[in-house]
Amino acid sequence: RDGLSILDQAIAHADLDEDGKVTGARVRDMLGLADKSAQRKLLQVLLEGDAKALLDGIDEQYALGVEPLALMRALMDLVHRVTVAQVSGAEPDAPTEEERAALAGFAERLSAAQLHRLWQLLLKGHDEVRQAPDPLVSARMALLRVLHASDMPDPGSLIKRMEELAQSTPAQSGGKTDT
User: Fold this and answer.
1) What three-state secondary structure class fits 150?
2) Which of 86, 91, 96, 154 is nearest to 120 (CA)?
3) Whole-angstrom Cα distance, residue 63 to residue 83?
4) Are residues 121 and 145 in contact, defined by beta-carbon separation less than 8 angstroms?
5) pLDDT digits (tens, 9 = 90+) for 62-120
6) Beta carbons within 8 Å of 10's beta carbon, 6+ residues apart
């Protein structure tokens, strides 16, 4: 019965348009559901380092009724599905071909270390948003931190670089001179 009621509502909303068609976008808007393609786009701009587009995407989702905590959880879900697809080598778990292709593209492009770091940063951000007095501000700041942290080298690369520098620097005598 609930499904029929929702369908009746969708038909009534469709009658308000000139074309009178029930579309997925119309039903999503009517139910206040998040658009999965918008979430993938948000992950994409996050990975590209486009801070302005990231903030615009967050604000757009919020204006559509997507709560900041739900947005963080959706991004975490995307990263999880990309990671599982990468590790298993199987086709990503997604309902549409478009989404499977996008997730497969992320799995090819990102390293396992990048995905795990992304997961940790999103998990920390999720906890912050959950406890924040202003979840929207907290989500913006957490996702900006993720964006900027993606430019930083991972700890393993830093250690390797430090070891290389230590080996290439001549040993100093510690300030003692022979006289």
Assistant:
1) coil
2) 154
3) 30
4) yes
5) 998 899 999 999 999 999 999 999 998 888 877 788 888 999 999 999 999 899 999 99
6) 22, 26, 27, 30
